[in-house]
């Protein structure tokens, strides 16, 4: 863990010692909730013969020595820990994962555009963005950033310690993170034309952030130098797009080639963040989103938790490496910096500074084997990203204000909108993941909200049944909203199904492996099916973004990242172009529009009647 030498001046971490530990739910609670969550996944629900058989196994697991034994082990394991899940989760969910982090794990934000000099000029935007990121970093270092409170309850701020001067590093079978004292490493990494540069960010004498004009001219020098050199034919950064085992192998080889490479890696790891100056002109929202989501892989370092992009036309965005941070801390940073950046009244006449920041080009020494690996990974990356499709669905006829006026939870509304659209499209509902924040607990990250419920299934069936009166359809809709809201409250309180079942599974020892009840409970097909996320969803909302998303998590699936803003809705839809169900992102967008129009019309009529 980083130990910063900057003197704390604020209260960023003042609630950390008061945060409650993550609870271990009662076994009976979890298994009852689990049973309810799988009912709608069977063709005949609770009357399905397979469900009845499995329900008996669940009951035996709950009341017998096998389930209670695992529960006791987990409770003992958790007894001296403030977060029992943290001991497993980062490794299981992220660092053990061997597929490429981009495009499969990392998440992106595309910043809104502005018709100003800062909004449209690459260097003005880059210098403005850099300055604002550094100002945000200063509030984290000095701990003057306000701690977050939700309904008066403090949120864990631990992840901010991993935000700057941190990097994921490839390891054998498992990656790890290195985090450094940012106050001793006053520089950032800039990548342009595939060339990597180390750029000074603070005054050596005063340790103050360099003024805007110094940052501007430093970035201008980087851009000028990279253009003079032409595109880097062997950009080492593309290796960070590899399968993690491949990247680990090449990382080791690069370290063996030269001590220079070790120094280069250390500089990248220690840097505050990465800024990529991209030689492209993304104009559509999909093009802007794709540039943030993955780009061409040649002008990136995917292992950094904070990576920003500015294209030739000023289009900007962010990509977050996920292993130590979820989206809420970086949402806060990006939302703030975009708003602040566009307040700057700057034109193209930037005064030349008295001193230009120090710049060092980072040149890796490579051999033929590494050169071939770069070519291979470039081809593989292009094939991978070209296999994925993206569609940005934005609806300006409805927003959070309208949804609240309908007396609906905005998040539950969008979740049921997604279920209705998917049902219209496919004629069924399938397991759906929604991220629920557990940051009310120490080192809390996420729990799964299982959005498909018996009430959700009844709602979509009723809605599509022409013989059901509109009043009854809306009754079913509101029952589905209530069910969803109840589950997400439990999940946010650490009382969902998935993390607890995961914890119980980690407690299985040699003495348990021959237990038929344990085998029948965990090996039942519905256990894995109910965690096979055909729809991967999450909400992070900002008026300062025009894009936000990630990849689908299974070959048949959809990635559905959504924003609920005051006057408009946004859902980023991703999938594999070739998928077993033949799903198309454009067609899913069509059914979202159809569904939201039907829901809005019915709810508006209901609201009018209620006022009469």
Automatic annotation (TrEMBL):
Stored Gene3D superfamilies: Chloramphenicol acetyltransferase-like domain, Choline/Carnitine o-acyltransferase, domain 2
GO molecular function annotation: carnitine O-acetyltransferase activity
E.C. designation(s): 2.3.1.7
Gene Ontology cellular component terms for the protein in this record: mitochondrial inner membrane; peroxisome
Compartmental location: Mitochondrion inner membrane; Peroxisome
Bilayer topology term: Peripheral membrane protein
Chief place where the protein resides: mitochondrion
Alphabetized InterPro entries for the sequence: Carn_acyl_trans (IPR000542), CAT-like_dom_sf (IPR023213), Cho/carn_acyl_trans (IPR039551), Cho/carn_acyl_trans_2 (IPR042231)
Residue ranges of every copy of the Choline/carnitine acyltransferase domain listed in the record: 22-579
Active-site feature positions: 322 (proton acceptor)
Entry keyword annotation includes ATP-binding: no
Catalysed reactions, semicolon-separated: (R)-carnitine + acetyl-CoA = O-acetyl-(R)-carnitine + CoA
Pfam families in UniProt: Carn_acyltransf (PF00755)
Keyword vocabulary terms for this entry: Acyltransferase, Fatty acid metabolism, Lipid metabolism, Membrane, Mitochondrion, Mitochondrion inner membrane, Peroxisome, Transferase, Transit peptide, Transport
A Gene Ontology biological process term: carnitine metabolic process
Domain of life according to the entry: Eukaryota
Record-stated family: Belongs to the carnitine/choline acetyltransferase family.
Function: Carnitine acetylase is specific for short chain fatty acids. Carnitine acetylase seems to affect the flux through the pyruvate dehydrogenase complex. It may be involved as well in the transport of acetyl-CoA into mitochondria.
PANTHER family in alphabetical order: CARNITINE O-ACETYL-TRANSFERASE, ISOFORM A-RELATED, CARNITINE O-ACYLTRANSFERASE
Protein name: Carnitine O-acetyltransferase, mitochondrial
Organism, as annotated: Pichia membranifaciens NRRL Y-2026
